Amino acid sequence: MHYSSGDARPSVIDRAFHLLCTPGAVALTVLAITGARLWLLTADAAPPVTPGEAEVWLMGLDPRPAWPDSGPLLPWLVRLVSTWCGTEAECLRLLAPVAQGMATWCLYHIGAALFDRRTGFWCMVVHATLPIVFWDSLFIGPVAVLASPWALALLALGRTMTVDQRLTDWVGLGVGIGVGVLIHPLMLLFVPLALVFLLLSGTVTRLPWRPGPYVAVLTALACAWPDIMWNAAHDWQGYRASLVALDDAMTRLPETLDSLAMDLGALLLLLGPVMVAMVALLTVRLPLEIMRGALRDFRARLLMLFSVPVLLAALAFGGLAEGSATLFGPAVPATVVLVTAWLVVRDRVGWVRLIAITNILLIGLVWRGPEVATRAGWVVPAGFGTMAEGVGWASAGPWLEGLAEAYEGQGLGVAGDDAAILAYQAARRGLEMRVIGTGLDTVDAFNGILVMPAALADAGGDIRGRLTITLPDGRRREWAAVRVEE
User: Fold this and answer.
1) Distance between CA 143 and CA 150 in Å, rounded?
2) Both 315 and 446 in a single domain?
């Protein structure tokens, strides 16, 4: 806190706010928020498991989950938690609010290390109230869990430029990058950005003679070593798959221009309208700030480098895949600190409060708005709402259970798109269901009842049953149970 000079003493409110900005008080606040999100996972309003989450669960059963969709760490952790807790939705998602809570804690320290505790406090408040952080606390996914190692790496990288830097900061940088790579290959984007930041720093000529950078590299390699060894033993399949995916994204980049408006709309919902307006203002002012010498401050270089370019990349590649709104996630930590610090330093805390209040209202509107509107007699567009993606799949459970009872003693399998969510619904009822065509399938022959897309079964299969699932957006998924003998 900055107090006026003279004999005037800080008021009671000032002293109370000063206590709120201390690490202990912020830690209790973050723990309380994380606890509330964990409780929310068990509430009746919690959304059902989505097909994407079922894929993470299914990959956890595989000794080596495949790239580039996800690194191996998250599926391994989900399997570990499921073994201890169960296959209920709240167990699968247990890591999501914990990861976001750790990211919020790191955001406080980034603001405090680069500026002061007051700035760190408001960074914590803004991050904790962002809609994208709320959604990523409800659904488990690799990019959502990537938030904590990305924020840790950003904190460590920023501290390496401060006066009180320690060797542990370089260790933290290596841990953040190494663990992040094990979660999702998107973490590799951090490496070139960090190199550019270090090359632009005033200490670049002294870095090769210091142990810190070498410690960071060795720590990152040590953390990512299991994945490196697996790729080395399998002709670097995972890394080559990531390069192929990136090359495909570059060739299809012009196609994303048509979806730019949709991506901008997603950005408004994920960051909130006030935050997006502030980011747009800073982006427009960026050339002017550079001319004024803002980049001479390492804090400005760090935050600008890890916010605006990452946001633009997410907008550019956002239209290439479903659920791509999560690509905005890596830009969140630096963007939050950049906007919050810019406002707090100029003593415009009222705008920071407006960001938090607006985002809380937006979360409430999207979270409970459709239900309230339906009760009021309004017609809500199909597929709108946070629960939409997983709605409808629960009906597959009783059908699969009846199928297993009708053909007791015979193997039960599933193949095709969305096989993971069907296998998950079967596991929820204690059924063993073999997923054909994945890394889990180590046996070529299959005898028993195979559930497959109806379009394939209609080509001449021995159909024993049919299942139709209507999704909230009106799309239909039709499945057929076929008797297979090898």
Assistant:
1) 10
2) no
Instruction: Enter the pTM of the model.
Output: 0.89
Is residue 6 one of the residues assigned to a domain?
no
| Of the candidates 136, 130, 195, the residue with the CA atom closest to the CA atom of residue 335 | 130
Q: Counting every residue, how long is the chain? A: 486
Strand partners, 482: 450, 463
For β-strands 448-453 and 463-470, DSSP reports them as: unpaired
β-sheet bridge partners, residue 479 = 453, 467
- How far from 21 is each of 27, 315, 343, 350, CA to CA, in Å? 10, 34, 17, 17
Domain that holds residue 336: 12-370
Mean pLDDT, residues 162-178 taken together? 91
Structural domain includes residue 309: yes
Q: Rounded distance, CA 351 to CA 272, Å?
A: 13
Spell out the residues 6+ positions from residue 179 whose beta carbon is closer than 8 angstroms to its own: 73, 149, 223
The contacts of residue 87 (CB under 8 Å, 6+ apart) are: 57, 424, 427, 428
Q: What would the pLDDT profile of 413-455 be if each residue is shown by its tens digit?
A: 888 888 899 999 999 888 888 888 765 555 567 788 888 888 8
Is residue 188 within a helix (H) or strand (E), and if so which, with residue range? none
Give yes or no: residues 339 and 425 share one domain.
Answer: no
Residues 362, 398: one domain? no
The Cα–Cα gap between 160 and 170 comes to 7
Q: Which residue has the tokens 């632009």?
A: 200
Specify the pLDDT at position 319.
45
Rounded CA separation 333/330 (Å): 7
Task: Specify burial of residue 430 (Cβ count, 10 A radius: 0-12, 13-18, 19+).
Answer: exposed
